[in-house]
Design a protein that fits this description.
heterodimer; A: mainly alpha; two-stranded antiparallel sheet; 15 helices; about 0% strand; B: alpha+beta; four-stranded antiparallel β-sheet; 6 helices; 4 strands; elongated
């Protein structure tokens, strides 16, 4: 009996240790910062496009009347500050303010404050535009939400540049557990998204008989690149449909082991770029790839930023990451204590 | 010593200062860990609950749990199904409209229209509006929510064009099979389109 108790205690202790490591290890904010730049840019573009027909969508006499959206949201806690602004002048004022916030988030200026404002603004548009939304909006809001949690401005940001100017020297990489929590939440959220995307497809016959991908490519309204020639290659269409389903279903498991993570991330690229290029959803395809960026290690992100023209990575100290993301080969043997200072 | 040399020396000193090494934060204390752990469990539960309890296919258990999570899920905009192209990619839907003006003239149009709605993201917004109408449409079943959106679209068209009345149709565009394409059928073949009326609306009518 005591052996059983000891085993259970040991297991509980292992679980607790694993939990603490998973959530509370400190990590370099480079990955979170890269996600901030991409998400900020996508939020900015998304809302610039809303601005092309701002009153047509959000005005009192717009496509989406308050009565229609209100009826749909009846009983829900969905919210939007845009309900308070009906006149074109007022709408434009808050819209421009939102654009400024998204631009500041992208460059990382007053990041802590604007990350919260960006999330509020993103949710407000989603809460008002029910009926004209799609996956892009869901992922935009999701990423904006997690950017509030971690120090997304602690790398590759104007905030950082200003601080480096004040201290007149390279700043250390400021690892933090909150950065890790933000990245972990994005990772888990991506797993939930793909799991339900995959499970939802299991009830569709076309994903089993392999015709689903053709049904997407053969849809004229989605089509941005004429792929009807693929009808000559039915087995290739079948393969793409099967790979899509299996990839989505197993993402939740295979994205975590280091051996399979690179494969899953590499497969994400053609899948989402295919959606972007062939099905006209460039923004959605790209933002899903941004979500996948959460599985890329900060060290690899810094290595990629290091490829930028001289000056853009100036003053950035590089450290090996404790975050078990996809790392560059040269980094795998490096320990957290063997960090080197690197100047671009 | 030249100013350039002095600047270089300053940089080297700065790099060697203790603060230039990576700053590894201390792990949070036990109380913070407990609090954050509780919040994380609550949040991840909500993230899961959004798609888990998403109608139409949901269990009684999921629906019950969803009522507990609903305020949190709604406020953070987590109520998403994430069922992209599921259960399978289907026919697309467009809205066609016929406007009649005071002088008896008529004009027709439809959305989405890739020649008008540019850039592509804007086109997709219009595409989602017509698709959304389809998701609210249950054939032969009353749907106040669908009716509200149809009226909203109609009112907007009347307001924008100053037409006397507008008639709306939901157009379904079926996708031909691969063997049909190989046999020469085009995606724009008329046989692939079917439409049904959504209603007629007069300017100024409530």
């Amino acid at each position: 009996m005591s052996q059983i108790v000891r085993s259970v205690r040991a297991w509980s202790s292992d679980v607790l240790d694993a939990w603490n490591r998973f959530w509370f290890d400190s990590t370099d904010p480079a990955t979170l910062a890269a996600i901030r730049i991409c998400t900020g840019a996508m939020l900015l573009y998304t809302h610039v496009v809303w601005g092309l027909e701002l009153t047509t969508f959000f005005g009192r006499d717009g496509w989406l009347s308050p009565e229609a959206v209100g009826r749909l949201q009846d009983g829900s806690y969905a919210w939007s500050y845009l309900w308070w602004f009906e006149s074109p002048a007022a709408l434009w004022t808050v819209h421009v303010a939102a654009l400024v916030v998204f631009a500041m988030l992208t460059v990382g200026l007053f990041t802590r404050v604007v990350s919260v404002l960006a999330f509020i603004a993103a949710v407000a548009y989603v809460g008002r535009a029910t009926g004209a939304l799609f996956g892009l909006d869901q992922i935009n809001v999701m990423l904006a939400m997690y950017l509030m949690i971690g120090p997304a401005g602690d790398a590759f940001s104007v905030d950082r540049w200003l601080k480096a100017r004040r201290t007149r020297g390279p700043l250390p990489v400021r690892k933090s557990w909150s950065s890790n929590v933000a990245i972990r939440l994005i990772q888990l959220h991506m797993c939930v998204i793909y799991m339900f995307a995959g499970m939802g497809k299991l009830t569709g016959a076309a994903w089993w008989d392999g015709n689903a991908m053709w049904m997407a490519f053969g849809n004229l309204e989605y089509q941005s690149l004429d792929m009807t020639w693929m009808a000559e290659w039915p087995r290739a269409m079948n393969l793409m449909a099967h790979v899509t389903v299996y990839w989505e279903l197993f993402y939740v498991a295979l994205i975590w082991p280091r051996l399979t993570r690179p494969v899953m991330l590499l497969l994400a690229i053609p899948l989402h770029l295919g959606i972007a290029i062939c099905l006209g959803m460039i923004t959605f395809g790209l933002i899903m790839l941004v979500g996948n960026l959460a599985f890329v290690s900060p060290a690899l992100v810094r290595a990629i930023f290091g490829l930028l023209p001289a000056g853009q990575g100036r003053g950035v100290a590089e450290a090996a990451s404790t975050n078990p993301g996809l790392r560059p080969k040269s980094d795998r043997s490096a320990s957290a204590s063997s960090a080197t200072t690197r100047r671009a | 010593m030249s100013s350039q040399q002095a600047e270089t020396d300053d940089k080297v000193k700065a790099m060697n200062r203790p603060h230039a090494t990576p700053a590894t934060a201390q792990p949070p204390g036990r109380g913070v860990r407990l609090l954050v752990s509780a919040l994380v469990i609550l949040h991840v539960g909500a993230v899961f609950m959004g798609p888990f309890a998403m109608p139409p296919q949901t269990s009684e258990l999921a629906a019950t749990l969803a009522t507990v999570y609903r305020p949190y899920v709604d406020v953070l905009s987590l109520a998403n199904g994430y069922r992209y192209f599921a259960p399978e990619p289907g026919p697309s839907h467009l809205v066609r409209y016929e406007l009649t003006f005071d002088d008896g003239a008529t004009r027709t149009g439809s959305f989405p229209d890739r020649n008008v709605n540019k850039p592509r993201l804007l086109y997709h917004r219009y595409f989602m509006m017509s698709e959304f109408l389809n998701t609210l449409t249950e054939p032969d079943a009353p749907s106040p929510r669908r009716d509200a959106y149809v009226k909203s679209y109609a009112d907007h068209l009347l307001h924008e064009t100053n037409a006397r009345s507008v008639k709306l149709f939901l157009v379904r565009h079926w996708i031909p099979r691969m063997d049909e394409i190989r046999a020469g059928r085009k995606l724009t073949d008329k046989i692939l389109y079917e439409e049904r009326p959504l209603g007629t609306f007069e300017r100024g009518a409530s």
